[in-house]
Write a structure and sequence with these properties.
alpha/beta, 21% strand, seven-stranded mixed β-sheet, single chain, 6 helices, Pyruvate Kinase, Chain: A, domain 1
């Protein structure tokens, strides 16, 4: 059964993590991907997903300022020392197309895919996107995973999916929506 939150945001993080963990356990899933800008959401996830293979996906270097990372090296080390893999990568559903759209205007297929996924909410789009990024980084087995995203800070969306690489995007299967904001 899907849980719907009445608003987006960090206040849903604990419930999102708990629901995702229990659903993944029910399904025999032991891999999870979580979006985390600073690493705080990833640390919260580790408290619950202790026996899971965890991949943390964060912004690429230069996302906010050229040649600067948002997640500190100390936090990245902390996450890795706690057994998590950390992927810092260009957004799978924007990347270079975003720069083309800014400069030349127009409609671009990957940005269109991202906007369609946002019809389900920002956190749901993020959960799909980070699964692609983790797959492209070689962090996933190809088995079903639980993927957790958010709408700015914290986590407010969790989905069960069969991951795929960017080059095989349409082989991805969103099996279940565990939780997401109803109002966004």
């Amino acid at each position: 059964m899907t849980m719907y939150f009445e608003q987006t945001g960090k206040m849903n993080t604990q419930t999102t993590l708990d629901l995702a963990y229990h659903r993944a356990k029910d399904l025999g899933i032991d891999e999870m991907v979580v979006a985390s800008t600073t690493g705080e959401t990833a640390l919260e996830a580790k408290k619950i997903f202790k026996d899971f293979h965890i991949t943390v996906v964060t912004y690429h270097c230069g996302f906010r300022k050229p040649f600067e990372t948002i997640m500190t090296p100390d936090m990245r080390n902390t996450l890795e020392n706690n057994g998590m893999n950390v992927v810092s990568a260009t957004h799978a559903l924007s990347g270079v197309e975003r720069s083309l759209a800014k400069k030349y205007q127009g409609v671009y297929p990957v940005l269109l895919i991202a906007d369609v996924l946002r019809l389900f909410g920002q956190g749901t789009k993020v959960a799909v996107e980070i699964a692609i990024m983790a797959a492209d980084a070689g962090m996933l087995s190809g088995n079903d995973i639980v993927s957790i995203g958010g709408s700015g800070k914290g986590a407010d969306a969790a989905i069960i999916l069969k991951p795929a690489n960017q080059s095989d995007l349409f082989d991805m299967r969103i099996r279940e929506i565990v939780c997401k904001p109803r109002i966004f």
